[in-house]
TrEMBL record:
It comes from Halalkalibacter suaedae. The keyword Oxidoreductase applies. This is NAD(P)/FAD-dependent oxidoreductase. Residues 3-284 form the FAD/NAD(P)-binding domain. InterPro entries: FAD/NAD-bd_sf (IPR036188), FAD/NAD-binding_dom (IPR023753), Ferredoxin-NADP_redctase_2 (IPR050097). Homodimer. Its cofactor is FAD. GO terms for molecular function: oxidoreductase activity. The keyword Flavoprotein applies. It holds the Pfam family Pyr_redox_2.
């Protein structure tokens, strides 16, 4: 069987793409190995009607909705290889199964690369986060830290987080790159600066209590935000060609088309700025419409040539 579209990655981007394809009567296969970027969190915020939902519950509801569409199939396994042969794509999974599809949607997401600080993973997603729009409300008016070594990210994140609390410390984890102008901005806005190397986080069950520094001092903080690095979550081999933007996201046009004809990308994998579930879902919807539009055009062109 040849699928109209193979969607690789079943987070909000891939799920919404699949929904729109299913409703467009497209034979669609969605691959997902369920390792989303927000796996570390118990609550997801900012998606209207789903504010505060457990991300796994979000996925369960989405998959239930997809089960109404008979042309949709979900394969809960990892894709390890995508190859293009003539006008078709061959998608190979980790168990060695091979599926053919006319179009590909990449919705494989991004992963954070956290700073190398002992115990950081214990707190990330519980009291340390990456996006104040996602988790700032829950931490409002509390003693917080911004942890960022890169000077541009540090000043940006400190300004942002100051919107949610007046008790803020910017920890640069040993970096001393902040310009005198930026230091002045912090001072004038009551944001304290700590340039010491962080040696660890103290707290219980992921809830931060103190940040410890290399000189033995520590400061009480109940949470904060980390300006992390990002990398692509997918590691499959592929003969597909695409260009990456300056943040490492796959570049597309406004119809989510990549450099390779027939291949689309949506959600965090084409990250170009702030990222949230609702944005990923919207991009998935757009990618599915673009796939649908191309398939319809191809059908009409074929009929024209045959006439
Ligand atoms: C700590 C934290 C808290 C967050 N809180 C919020 C919040 O409150 N609100 C909010 O809106 N956003 C939040 N986010 C951001 C949100 O998680 C992302 O923006 C969103 O998950 C992006 O959706 P996506 O579909 O692009 O990718 P993902 O949700 O990451 O989904 C990608 C899927 O593709 C799968 N996949 C990858 N490679 C393959 C492969 N080769 N084969 C098969 N499957 C594959 C993965 O296993 C995964 O299931 C948070 C992120 C973090 C890190």
């Amino acid at each position: 069987m040849i699928f109209d579209c193979a969607v690789i990655g079943g987070g909000p981007a891939g799920l919404n793409a699949t929904l729109v394809l299913g409703r467009s009567r497209r034979k669609t296969i969605l691959f997902d190995d369920n390792k989303p970027r927000n796996a570390v969190t118990a609550e997801s915020h900012g998606f209207i009607t789903r504010d505060g939902i457990d991300p796994q519950e979000f996925k369960r509801i989405a998959q239930e909705e997809l089960s109404r569409y008979l042309d949709v199939r979900i394969e809960k396994q990892r894709v390890r290889h995508i190859n293009q042969e003539n006008n078709l794509f061959q998608v190979e999974t980790e168990s060695g199964d091979v599926y053919s599809a006319k179009k590909i949607i990449l919705s494989t997401g991004f992963k954070e690369v956290l700073p190398d600080i002992p115990r950081v993973k214990e707190f990330y997603g519980k009291s340390l986060f990456s996006c104040p729009f996602c988790d700032g409300w829950e931490l409002r008016d509390r003693p917080l830290a911004v942890i960022a070594a890169d000077d541009t990210k540090a000043i940006h994140m400190a300004k942002m987080v100051s919107n949610w609390t007046n008790d803020l410390i910017l920890c640069t984890n040993g970096s001393k790159d902040l310009s005198p102008d930026d230091q002045e901005i912090l001072k004038n806005n009551g944001i304290r600066l700590n340039e010491k190397k962080i040696t660890g986080f103290i707290g219980k069950e992921g809830m931060l209590e103190r940040i410890q520094f290399e000189d033995g001092t520590s400061v009480g903080r109940v949470g904060g935000f980390i300006a992390a690095e990002w990398k692509q979550a997918a590691s499959f081999e592929s003969s597909l060609e695409y260009t990456l933007n300056e943040l490492g996201g796959i570049e597309t046009d406004s119809w989510q088309r990549t450099k390779t004809a027939g291949v689309f990308a949506c959600g965090d994998t084409r990250i170009a700025g702030p990222s949230q579930l609702i944005m990923a879902a919207a991009e998935g919807s757009m990618a599915a419409m673009a796939v649908n539009a191309e398939l319809i055009e191809e059908k009409f062109n074929q009929e024209k040539q045959q006439a």
